[in-house]
Prior knowledge:
This protein is of the alpha/beta class. 27% of the residues lie in helices and 27% in strands. It has a five-stranded parallel beta sheet, covered by helices on one side. It has a five-stranded parallel beta sheet with strand order 9-16-10-11-12, with helices on one face. It has a five-stranded antiparallel beta sheet with strand order 23-24-28-27-26.
Amino acid sequence: MKYVIIGTGVAGIAAIEAIRSVDTAGEITVVGDDPHGFYSRPGLAYYLTGEVPDKQLFPQMAEEFRKLRFHYIKGHVTRILPAASRVDLQDGSSVTYGRLLLAIGASATPLTVPGAQLPGVVKLDHLDDARQILKFARRGKTAVVVGGGITALELTEAFVARGVKVHYLLRGDRYWSNVLDAQESRIIENRLREEGVQLHFHAEVIEVQGQNSVKSVRLLDGRVLRCDMVAYAIGIQPRLGLAREAGLAVDRGVLVNQFLESSVPGIYAAGDVAQVYDPVAGRSVLDSLWGPARDQGYTAGLNMAGRIKAYHKSVPFNVTRLAGLTTTIIGAVGHGRDDDLVGIARGDSETWRELPHAMIAQSGEVNRLRLLIGERTLVGAIVMGDQKLSMPLEKMIGNGADVSSIRDQLLAPGALIAEIVSTYWLEWSRQHA
Ligand SMILES: Cc1cc2nc3c(=O)[nH]c(=O)nc-3n(C[C@H](O)[C@H](O)[C@H](O)COP(=O)(O)OP(=O)(O)OC[C@H]3O[C@@H](n4cnc5c(N)ncnc54)[C@H](O)[C@@H]3O)c2cc1C
């Protein structure tokens, strides 16, 4: 069998591992256009703040790659021809396939206002973007950051860490309103202010001004903010061009069934580019997270190699740092729309937006725990600050632990929910050890 994988992100690499675990003889070719190959995209935030050197972004050793025995082509695929089972590359060459995987990810939604092409207007997709941001940050004094999700905050933190003054622009009236509740947004906003970040709500950039470099931005309300850089993170878009042109069914991502196979037999998709059927939700969803991309890539690889296996979407889980505060987001926690983001953002899952059943929270000075409670189970949680309960909650939510025995206690006014959950967890984990 001849396997071709497009994309050297985590989905592509996991697919190679899966194929090799089943088929030791098949020929695997991987085509990727990122000059740095495979590295940790979530790690870029820590590289930008200076906490992680760039070599730590590369988790895989050359020796491990050699063991997987694949042929690597550094190049850009321009066309897929399903009728000829062939992909064409930008340099004029072609590769034929027996099974093909699209693992080409998503790209940052572009800023389309006049002046957005000026040097100094940056986004964060690749390691090269991060290097460019650092280059500008060394020269610049003031940055404008646009966007409401995790990546915009990571950009803000990066500039703060590099001594750059930040104007942080939000289109709505609070930070990340489709995932955080009002109090959680305020916690993050206050921490940003303490770091010296200037927040602007209901602020929308309509022009980036400057001749050969950024000088200022003009806002919809007429204000002009002087700056040397503009960084934006206003959502992401699965890269759909290749699939569309090849006649694959697409919606917001490449539509795939539970086996990660697209509407064209023999062509699979996984990771940020894929919109995967979720039998529990009864619809196809986007999950733009590292863990699901790895799991989908692995499952796609198994299916490509003939080991038929359905993909089971796990409860979306993300540990991130928001304005220096470790925050874990598990399951369904949110509210739906967010004015600042176009659809979905980096490190985001559509499942988070599902409507919660009952919601309760307990806040300390810097720590906060919020639980979303279904009829019998916990369906989601946000853990900010103290992380003692994040692993137990992930396990209980992921395994559908029956919490009916503590439901009334949890929902009682003024309940100390952290304590109730801790006590329940001790008993539950003992029974399920
Ligand atoms: C700054 C940042 C922070 C993030 N933070 C988190 C986080 O905290 N938690 C979390 O869970 N997730 C986070 N994510 C998201 C996570 O990194 C992605 O969900 C994951 O990397 C998706 O993997 P993938 O393999 O599907 O796609 P990608 O990693 O995007 O890989 C796709 C590859 O395909 C290549 N490619 C595209 N088109 C072509 C073509 N035509 N020809 C050849 N090659 C092509 C691309 O260059 C790229 O190398 C973050 C992402 C970024 C960028």
